[in-house]
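Morning run. Coffee first, then this:
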Amino acid sequence: MIALKTTFRILIGPAIAIGPGKADLLEGIGRTGSISAAARAMNMSYRRAWLLVDTMNRCFKQPLVAAQTGGKGGGGAQITDLGREILHHYREMERKTLSATGEDMAAIRSHLTDTPPENPH
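And here it is:
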């Protein structure tokens, strides 16, 4: 199976403000209302997910995710209005990139072998 995909990241210095994994995490938090549930769905540790959320929140002027600490009723997290806006724009950028590069991707795809290498380095 041949899959061509473009990915990009928006950087603030060395920090990745948002990229494909962080966008997926934001969507997961939006679906589940929980950083830990979104992390589990992505086979990611809670600590890793929390670090990604923390980085995103520090890269923007306002947080993309609002988290409530646990307790009697449990914690939770939700995407802020800014988080939804940033996610929307990021996904639009992905869509437009794929649309703009479709012809070139098809040209490259026509030259790829059907069998992936055994040791992809």
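The mean pLDDT is 91. Good start to the day.
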